[in-house]
Write a structure and sequence with these properties.
By secondary structure, this protein is α+β, with helices and mostly antiparallel strands. The chain contains 4 helices and 5 strands, in the order E-H-H-E-E-E-H-E-H. It is globular.
């Protein structure tokens, strides 16, 4: 039996809001190449912004009364499959809790939510340098998002519109 409880976050609950803010701060310090604190403006707007997004799904991993991980997800839609897609935008596990299966538990809960929501797939992105996360994702069956019948790989690209 696992020491961890995985459950959907209640974005109206103070404890869950604090857990999300804390874990997002943890992730900002764990960022490859540029560890830094979460900007105050982001902290101030984060919960309200998540609440305003009707596609938000956040799963929290708890050990007793301490949040130790999160999967921040957003529902999308595949025009090619005419079905929902669940994107894992952030997968966060506190450094001192890694290697205990929390990431696997969170991703299993994500997959369960995706299946229950009639999604055709779960998507995510990973930093090329994050070898541990890449191993985990490969172990769980995540592969490059190649399009059947077409040559080449699909890349995740971004264009910043404003400084964060």
């Amino acid at each position: 039996m696992s020491d961890f409880l995985i459950r959907p976050a209640d974005l109206q609950a103070q404890a869950d809001q604090q857990a999300i803010l804390h874990l997002t701060e943890v992730m900002s310090y764990d960022s490859p190449g540029s560890p830094q604190p979460l900007p105050a403006a982001v902290k101030q707007k984060l919960i309200q912004g998540l609440q305003a997004m009707p596609t938000t799904l956040i799963l929290l991993a708890w050990r007793q009364d301490q949040a130790v991980g999160a999967a921040v997800c957003f529902w999308g839609f595949s025009t090619f499959a005419a079905q929902r897609v669940l994107n894992v935008h952030d997968l966060i596990v506190q450094a001192e809790n890694r290697g205990q299966g929390i990431g696997k538990l969170l991703l299993a809960a994500v997959e369960q939510a995706a299946r229950a929501g009639d999604a055709c797939k779960v998507t995510l992105e990973v930093d090329e340098e994050n070898a541990g996360a890449r191993r985990l994702y490969a172990q769980l069956g995540y592969v490059g998002a190649d399009t059947p019948g077409k040559a080449g790989r699909t890349f995740f690209l971004a264009k910043r519109l404003a400084p964060v």
